[in-house]
Amino acid sequence: MGIWRRFTEIAAGAAGFFVESDDEQQPGRRVDNAGYATALIALGAKLAKADGLVTAEEITAFREVFSAPPSAQNDVARLFNLFRQTTLGFESYAKRVARRFRCCPAILEDILDGLFHIARADGRVTDDEEVFLKQVSDIFGFSDREYRRIRASRLGREPDDPYLILGIDESIRDCDIKKAYRRMASANHPDRIIARGLPAEMQGLASRKMAMINLAYEKILTERGLARDTVH
Description:
Layout: H1 3-11, E1 18-19, E2 30-31, H2 34-49, H3 56-66, H4 73-83, H5 90-100, H6 105-119, H7 127-140, H8 144-155, H9 162-166, H10 174-188, H11 190-196, H12 203-224
Antiparallel strand pairs: 1-2
Helix pairs in contact: 1-2, 2-3, 2-4, 2-5, 2-6, 3-6, 5-7, 6-7, 6-8, 10-12, 11-12
C-alpha cells in the first residue's frame, strides 16, 4: 500500500500503524502516524487555497494524490474542507512532515511532487502557489537548485537548461556525467517512485519526469560532442 493511501486511512481513523525506522524511534517500535497523515492533508488543502480559490480541478487532483479508500473518503473530505479555509499555519504542518521524513529526501520529493500536481491542476501555477511551494521546499530542506529541478520536472523548463534537470553544475567533468544521470534516473524511475508511495494514478506524471531526465542527458551529451558509449 502506498504511503499516501496508508496515511489517509490512518487519518480517517482506520486501525493502522507504521514501524518507525528513523533515529527518533527505536527500530520495531510501532507508532501512530495520524498526526502525519493529517499534516499531509492539511498541506494539500492549504495549497489549493493559496491562490484564493479552491477549484473543482484542484479537488480532483487532491483526490488523485491521496487516493483514499471508500471507507475513508468522507473523513478525508471533512479534513480537507476544514483546512481549505485558509493557508495560515501551513508551515507548521510542513515542519511536521519534514521531521518525520528528514532521513528520506526521496519521500519528501514525492510529497512535493504531489503538491505540484494539485497546484497545476487548474491549468496554471500562480505566484501565490509558487511562494507556498517554495516555502514548503525550504522547510523540507531542499536547496534552491533542488527546488528548481523539482519544479522543472513538473512544469517544464527552457530546453537549454539540462544541467538543472539533472541537478549538476555546468563545470561537471565529462567522466562524471553518466554517473549523475544514472543516479537521477535510478531515483526517479516510475517503478521506484510508485514503490515509494505515489498512487498508480500518477504513473503518467512519473513517466513524463523520467522522459525529461533522459532528454536533459541527451542534450548535455550533444552539446559536449559526446556519445553514450564514450562517456565512462
